[in-house]
Structure formats: structure tokens, C-alpha cells
Amino acid sequence: MYSGEENWLLYPHQGSQGWFEVESLLQQQGKNVKAMQTEIREENRKRQLTMILELTFWDEFGATRTLPPRPHYFDFKRWAWISSLGEHAES
């Protein structure tokens, strides 16, 4: 799920939200949520935990549509993934 591919079956007009288990992901790197929260600084808050979300949609006829990769960072204060689209890489 974190470095591979996850398929979701969607129907017209259906909304869907994915989620990631943050604590177990951090444990793989010898960290935990409490440590990450104490390490938050303005200069690192957008780099502590990041992902690039790549979505490809396909229909029953084989037509596909791939969206541009979308960078996100995890905000440990708001406990949410925040899209970095439109933000400068340095900020």
C-alpha cells in the first residue's frame, strides 16, 4: 500500500477516501507519532512525512486516464495529509 499499488472499485457518483496507518509506517523507520510531533518545526513540517500520490483511472472498456503526480505531506498537528499542489518546493 505504501510503495505499490492499491485498486479501488468505484461506481458513478461514488465518493471514496483512502487512508494510511501512519504509526506502523513510522515504526518501520524507528519513529513514532509522539516523536514526530515533538520534532515539528516550521522549517521541517512539510518534509517530516511525505508521499507522491499517483492515480490512474480505467473503465470497463480499457480506457485509462492518469492524473499528474500529486505531492502531499502529513501535518502532525492537524492529523491530515495536505496536498502540496501550488506550493513552492522550498516552503
Give a verbal description of the structure.
The structure is a single chain. The protein has a domain at 22-83. The mean pLDDT is 83. With 91 residues, the protein is α+β, with helices and mostly antiparallel strands. It has helices spanning 22-27, 33-38, and strands at 50-53, 56-58, 64-66, 70-75, 80-83. 2% of the residues are buried. Strand 4 and strand 5 (80-83) form a beta hairpin. It is built from two helices and five strands; from the N terminus they run ααβββββ.
Key features?
single chain, 91 residues, alpha+beta, 3-stranded antiparallel β-sheet, two-stranded antiparallel ribbon, 2 helices, elongated
Please outline the helices and strands:
Blueprint (H helix, E strand, L loop, with lengths): L21 H6 L5 H6 L11 E4 L2 E3 L5 E3 L3 E6 L4 E4 L8
Antiparallel strand pairs: 1-4, 2-3, 4-5
